[in-house]
Amino acid sequence: MPSPAYLLKRVDFIFKDEKDWKEILKNSINRPAHELINELISSELKGRGGAGFPTGLKWKLTAEVDDSIKYVICNADEGEPGTFKDREILSKVPLKVLTSMAVCGHVIGSKEGYIYLRGEYFFLQPELNKSIREFKDYCNEINFDFTIRIFMGSGAYICGEETALFESMEGKRGEPRNKPPFPSTYGYMGKPTVINNVETLAHCYTIFEYGSKRFYDLGVQYSRGSKLFSVSGDTPKPGIYELELGMSLVDFVDEFGDGDTKAVQVGGASGFLVPRKGFRETTIGFQGKLTGISLPTGGSMMLFNSSRSMYNVLDNYLEFFREESCGQCTPCRVGCQQLLNGIKAVKRGEKNALYLNKLMRLTETMQYTAKCGLGQSVANSFSAIVENFREEMIY
Amino acid sequence: MYPVTELIKNLADRHGRERRNLLPILQGVVEQEKYLSEYSMIEIARELDLPASEVYGTATFYSFLEYKKMGKYIIRICKTITCSMKGKNQIIKTIEDMLKINVGETTPDGNFSLLQTNCLGFCHKAPAMLINYEVYTDLTPEKVREILTNYINKKGREE
Ligand SMILES: Cc1cc2nc3c(=O)[nH]c(=O)nc-3n(C[C@H](O)[C@H](O)[C@H](O)COP(=O)(O)O)c2cc1C
Ligand code: SF4
Ligand code: FES
Predict the structure, then answer these.
(1) Has residue A348 been placed in a domain?
(2) Nearest residue of A to residue B121 by CA position?
(3) Are B111 and B149 in the same domain?
(4) What digits encode the pLDDT tens for the residues B110-148?
(5) What is the span of the domain harbouring residue A288?
(6) What pTM value is reported for the model?
(7) ipTM of predicted assembly, 2 dp
């Protein structure tokens, strides 16, 4: 059934005050693990870090592994261009995130949690440590054994990829591992690990506070609940907005565009570029069997108006990928370099326009052969820009 | 300020001497020294009983773990898409003119280094930059001149 015309609905869960955190923590850790898992599963919450894995299932799989040492990790590496909502969560409602980490510890049987905080957010540390101490004091008071520490990153986008993040925490280069094994059996230090995005954990808190139904009632099929959107670029009102999932891109542009929007980048540089002619048929959410064109996003929504050269946009993305590629596998390391050199050569007239087709085939190869999401996703924006703005690439 | 050997020992005492304690130790050295000299890396390797090549390989992976001598204040301008669209080139030009250095260089007095970096997570307030750990947003040439003047004066007062 096609969804009815759908206007943007503001939601206010994430930044709603966290004053009841003690009660929510205490009530939650007195509930049996399977009940909390079922609560998350029936909410249909999916990970907000980009990949959209069902959170309840992630916790369940890790809970089922038999090991005396397990870890809970909050992914606060937030490096995708155009994403800036996790910092806001950690500075405004940190206790929600800490509470959900501890509840996760209770569910899976873990006593140790880490927040992997990107180096760029070093300045958040003092305040966050204060919240962590306040949190720990209360855990001691109620005899609940769970310790949270911050682990600082040092300026590497790829460390947001979960297995690269584990490598980094283990004191190594942030090079993604092969999967499987997945973190639920083999994560940080080779131990079963739940890793969740900051926002995912904040939604867990909402679900523990109000029950799964309140969450499930928001959004659409396959994409339940609300989501924080980081809106930037050519918009009169850049900022962070909590909206229901499943909105149509055309409504989004009506609300946030400057009247001259030429394209929207959904999901950051590694996400999807939608040209104006695609606004109407695109919705924002996870892909499902019946959804039509539905694009997931970690929250990054960047708008471009007609004054922008899409060549410059692509050039900027490719430079980003070339620099941030961990360099471990050839399709991505060499591919990113060649794509950037290639579009420059076409622009300068050293290669003819047909060369762009060759570069498109290279991105396809990368999609299949690169080891992790970074190399695999370069094709997304590359093909959309080259296909829809071919003249801008050449002249 | 500790001599670097002592600093490394203190950091290892504080964080531990396992491989997984390597990053916090590297970060601690960079916080004080602004970069990792070959000497520091060899000392860290000795303290943690690791091959020096492993320490070097790890350190050079991370863009904030500098291994060339840097100025007291490291300026990192965001060059990713939104900051790029919102005028980061003008910001760079303003700083280059003011400090008489190019991107990638350090002022002769060793006070400022100018670098570019990727998305700082302040795209809604672009263009943005970091000076050491301090974030500055919604930059304009005037605003940048004012910020830098404050740093230059601060530096003058400290001496
Ligand atoms: C290149 C790359 C970068 C990523 N960066 C982040 C990030 O900064 N933050 C994040 O939460 N997830 C990031 N992810 C996704 C993580 O690998 C992982 O799926 C996520 O942290 C799981 O949490 P969730 O299920 O709550 O979304 C990245 C993935 C890739 C491939
Ligand atoms: S795809 Fe790129 S970032 Fe991912 S492992 Fe390969 S080289 Fe590293
Ligand atoms: S693009 Fe500069 S802060 Fe995001």
Answers:
(1) yes
(2) A84
(3) yes
(4) 999 999 999 999 999 999 999 999 999 999 999 999 999
(5) 220-305
(6) 0.97
(7) 0.97
